[in-house]
Amino acid sequence: SAAEKDGHDWFMRKEIHEQPRAVADSLLGRRTPEGRLHLDEMRLSDQELRDVDKVIIIACGTSFYAGMVAKYAIEHWTRVPVEVELASEFRYRDPILDYSTLVVAISQSGETADTLQAIRHARTQRSKVLAICNTNGSTIPRESDAVIYTHAGPEIGVASTKGFLTQLVACYLLALYLAQVKGTRYGDEIDEVMRQLEAMPDHIATVLASADAIYAMAAEHVDTRSVLFLGRHAGYPVALEGALKLKELAYIHAEGFAAGELKHGPIALVESGLPVLCVVPPAGRDQLRDKMVSGIQEVRARGARTICLVEDGDDAITPYADTVIRLPKVPVLLQPLVAVVPLQLFACELATRMGHDVDQPRNLAKSVTVE
Ligand code: G6P
């Protein structure tokens, strides 16, 4: 009923709008009065975590893209090498694991069969397994050595939204916690990053407040058959997630690419009128940002219609953007928390206008319990 959906047409739209709260809840109670990070369900000792010399993140679907962001954050803050792998690939390739490998399984439902089989395998190899999960008492956290619960609340829409944002939060917390335990130089910045994280719910609310502009853009794309998404660095997984949302909900062809790969293939797809959605890195990261700008110029010169997600106040892009979507100013590693939101709104609205069932897209299941 409409009441269950808070007056929204879909659970998914409701869940998108719950994201400021979900992110705030997932940050709640993580900091001691002395400014130390504290994770209550972290059952691994400081010594066990100090011994970790490699992290392997495994997940499926949207959770896998959270893992890609986690790699950037963990490596940056801890200097521990991180691999990210699809659970279904990890399980059957004979991965190199031992007691000093920390395997991080990210799963909203905690029941995804591929991810479950992957952690079972990791434990037979004596690796420690930490689950990032939204569902209390589900199988994956029960079979793991430690868990960080996200506090998104129940997610009903099949396509993950608030689940994803809260997974990102848990990944940042894990990265900072490892930095604290290992005593890396970023250990001193934990307080500052936590403050930046605590400001994110307001930033996400700012993005949601301009939903109407995104909906208007979606209205212009109801006849679109194909969309490309480009991103770099932490914006790359955002591009992949934006494309996945369009496939899941609107059933249209959508591909996400690392913008640097454009010239190695994807640019051949560009033809007149093709929408290309570009996640532009924050202006503080000028090298990244400038490379992105040249990618945008390249596709535009070949007739693409560029839709650019750009940090507020960054006007270097505007001459090359057919549509500009403004994002709040946030650090580059945290940008996925705001950048993915317009893409969720876009996919939800486009699918609605195309007459699709947004909450239960054809052929998909909320939790895939078969391999
Ligand atoms: C299904 C859902 C996706 C989800 C994926 C992984 O495909 O439709 O939204 O991202 O499973 O689910 P998990 O519960 O393991 O995060």
TrEMBL record:
It comes from the Bacteria. GO terms for biological process: amino sugar biosynthetic process; carbohydrate metabolic process; fructose 6-phosphate metabolic process; protein N-linked glycosylation; UDP-N-acetylglucosamine metabolic process. Keywords: Aminotransferase, Cytoplasm, Glutamine amidotransferase, Repeat, Transferase. Its EC number is 2.6.1.16. Residues 45-184, 217-361 form the SIS domain. It is found in: Cytoplasm. The active site is at residue 366. GO terms for cellular component: cytosol. One of its GO terms (molecular function) is glutamine-fructose-6-phosphate transaminase (isomerizing) activity. Its main location: cytoplasm. It catalyses: D-fructose 6-phosphate + L-glutamine = D-glucosamine 6-phosphate + L-glutamate. Catalyzes the first step in hexosamine metabolism, converting fructose-6P into glucosamine-6P using glutamine as a nitrogen source. Homodimer. This is Glutamine--fructose-6-phosphate aminotransferase [isomerizing]. It comes from Nocardioides soli. The lineage of its organism: Bacteria, Bacillati, Actinomycetota, Actinomycetes, Propionibacteriales.
